[in-house]
Design brief:
Largest sheet: 2 strands, antiparallel
Structural class: mainly alpha
Strand order of the largest sheet: 1-2
Mean pLDDT: 72
Distance between the termini: 95 Å
Number of helices: 8
Helix content: 55-70%
Number of strands: 4
Length: 287
C-alpha cells in the first residue's frame, strides 16, 4: 500500500514539475498564467479522482493522502517557478528604470522573459537611447555656443591689445569692432532660440548672399587676432559668387573654421622668394 502511494505521489509530482517547466518556456504572460491555473486546478482534481479510484478498490485512505500532499506541493512549486519567471525580468526592468532616473543614461533593460515584458524592455531601451541622444545634443549645443561666443571675444581682445600697445589706432578697428559686437548680439539672440530648437523647429532665413562679402567680413573680423599671432590673413575670392543660404549662419561657420586654423600648430613652406605660412588644425574644425 505504501509503495503504491509513493508511486502515485511520485508520478503526480513528476507530472506537475514537467508542466511547470513547460510553462516557463511559453513566451506569453497570459498563456503562462492560464496554464498555471489549469495546472493548479487540474492536477489536484486528477489526483483526487485517481486516489478515489484506488481507495475504492483497496479500501485505504493512505493513497489519497499521499496524492493530495504531492499535488499540493507541485501546485505550490509550479506557482513559485512560473511566478519567478515573470517577476525576475520585471525586477531587472525596475532596476534599469531606477538607474535611469538617478542619471545613468546608459542604463538598459534586458529584452528577455515573456513576450509582453520583453517588448516593454525594448520600448524602455528605445526611450533611454533617445534621452541619451537628446542630452548629448544639448551638451554639443552648449559647447557650440561657448565656442561661438569665444570667437568674437577673442577678436575684440586682440584689437584692444593692439590699440593699447600702440600697434594700431582705434580708428582702424572701428568697423571691425562694430561687426564683432553685432556678431555677439546675434549669438545672444540665437541662445533665445534654444527652446525652438528643442521643439524641433529651426527656421533659417534664406536669401541670396555674396560669398565674397561673407569671406571678406570674416577676414576683417579676425585680422587683429591674426596679426597678434604674426600671421598674414588675406582673402582671395574669384568673381562675385552668389549663394542661396542663411548668411549669418554661413559667416559663423567661416569664423569658426578660420579661428581654428589660426590656432597652433603651424607649418611653413617656401613659395618663390618668400615664406608662406599655412595654418592647420589637428583636432576639431577645418584648416
Amino acid at each position: 500500500m505504501i509503495e503504491l502511494a509513493l508511486i502515485v505521489a511520485a508520478s503526480t509530482l513528476a507530472a506537475g514539475l514537467a508542466g511547470s517547466f513547460a510553462l516557463r518556456l511559453v513566451p506569453s504572460v497570459s498563456t503562462r498564467l492560464a496554464g498555471l491555473s489549469l495546472l493548479a486546478v487540474g492536477l489536484p482534481l486528477a489526483a483526487v479522482l485517481l486516489s478515489g479510484a484506488v481507495m475504492f478498490e483497496m479500501g485505504s485512505d493512505v493513497v489519497i493522502l499521499a496524492v493530495a500532499a504531492a499535488s499540493s506541493t507541485v501546485a505550490i512549486a509550479a506557482a513559485l517557478l512560473v511566478g519567478r519567471s515573470i517577476t525576475a525580468p520585471v525586477d531587472r526592468l525596475r532596476a534599469a528604470s531606477g538607474a535611469l532616473a538617478s542619471g545613468d543614461l546608459s542604463a538598459r533593460a534586458p529584452e528577455q522573459g515573456p513576450t509582453e515584458i520583453a517588448e516593454l524592455g525594448a520600448a524602455f531601451n528605445g526611450m533611454a537611447a533617445r534621452l541619451e541622444e537628446l542630452f548629448d545634443a544639448r551638451r554639443e549645443l552648449v559647447a557650440w555656443a561657448s565656442h561661438d561666443l569665444r570667437t568674437p571675444l577673442a577678436a575684440i581682445r586682440a584689437m584692444m591689445e593692439a590699440v593699447e600697445d600702440g600697434v594700431a589706432k582705434p580708428e582702424q578697428y572701428t568697423q571691425e569692432l562694430a561687426e564683432q559686437v553685432r556678431t555677439l548680439g546675434a549669438l545672444v539672440d540665437d541662445l533665445f532660440e534654444l527652446a525652438r530648437i528643442d521643439a524641433g523647429v529651426l527656421t533659417l532665413e534664406l536669401e541670396d548672399a555674396s560669398l565674397g562679402r561673407l569671406v571678406d567680413s570674416c577676414v576683417r573680423g579676425l585680422q587683429a587676432e591674426a596679426q597678434a599671432r604674426r600671421i598674414t590673413l588675406e582673402a582671395r575670392v574669384g568673381g562675385d559668387a552668389i549663394a542661396w543660404c542663411a548668411p549669418d549662419q554661413v559667416e559663423r561657420v567661416l569664423l569658426n573654421l578660420v579661428t581654428n586654423a589660426l590656432a597652433p600648430s603651424h607649418a611653413l613652406r617656401r613659395r618663390g622668394g618668400g615664406c608662406c605660412q599655412r595654418a592647420t588644425t589637428g583636432g576639431h574644425g577645418g584648416g
